[in-house]
Amino acid sequence: MTPAARVQAAIELLDQVVAAARDNGPPADRVIADGLRLRRYAGSKDRRAIRELAYAAIRACGPLPESGRAAMLRLAGDGGGIDGLFDGSPYGPAPVEEGEPVAEGGVAPQWLAERLVQSDIVGEDALALLMRAPLDLRVNTLKASREGLELPLEGEHIAAPNGLRFPGGTPVEQWYAYRAGAVEIQDCGSQLACEVVGAQPGETVIDLCAGGGGKTLALAAAMNNRGRLIAADTDRGRLSQLDPRAERAGATIIETRLLNPGQEAAALADLAGQADAVLVDAPCSGTGTWRRNPENRWRLTERRLAEVAALQDRLLDLAATLVRPGGRLVFVTCSLLDEEGAERFARFLEKHPDWRAVRPELPLGTARGAGIRLTPNRDGTDGFFIARAELAC
User: Is 334 a catalytic residue?
Assistant: First the structure.
């Protein structure tokens, strides 16, 4: 393919990404992967170049663009090195017309950019949200150790005690160590959040919003497969991914519970006051994960943000009923907005005076409210708010 043809192919994929974001359709990675699969004429280098162009254009646009072409014109105007390819050549994009729409730049839609500013995410901290992320692995201590594990590439030791870092795009899924369950893909910040739980062998631990089980697997390893570990979630599809992952990882103590939305308390009633620790990795806006999913800033609305904040309050209240006296609760969101982090935790402490905040001691992060905030710019991780509270005996 010619460079111009690659640009046109990326524009066509971007049209689908924009439509999916507008209509709450599939995520960009799926749209782009499916679109490239249909382009059988494109070689591997072409597909890689098209994908990189599409994601560069997504990152270049703040608000949702009018079209894929408008997004690509923004990238061209930002010095993307493609402005000369709008020349009308065969299979390439048509020449630019005077007054043609060009997408707006910026970090996010205006309302969301203002919320970031209110949460002190400005300047380089904001720009770093759209940089490409590295690939972090967690060595599964049920099967290996960071020091003794042999991998095709040498990874960088990171702040998480069992973590290794590789360049983004490293094909770790093809490695024997991955297929054998000796390593899991998990961001350094996510690994540190699991460390804050302090799960110990023999304890009863609940992962209240387990999703696909990435943090559950880390907790099972920390417990050395001794104790009781309950992974609960309302999403059947995501929770169903945990059993095969647990089998590969050799994690044998995990119990899964599918919850009905709004009826979670009833499904967990037998665990009331029993848990040594509850992890609330709550649903959120995902502003801390834009490096991996940059189109998510086009999908978020003020209404959705208010809904997830209310859900976080409800989940924290529920988690408090599950912890035994002297036990602990860890609240985590992959968001950098205070209304999904410090403000929610402050509200919880105000409503539950028998709980006290214990600020996590981590090798990365800065204090935010009664918790810790991790950011891509300062810490090299995804964005997280992490807080811990303990119940009086």
Answer: yes
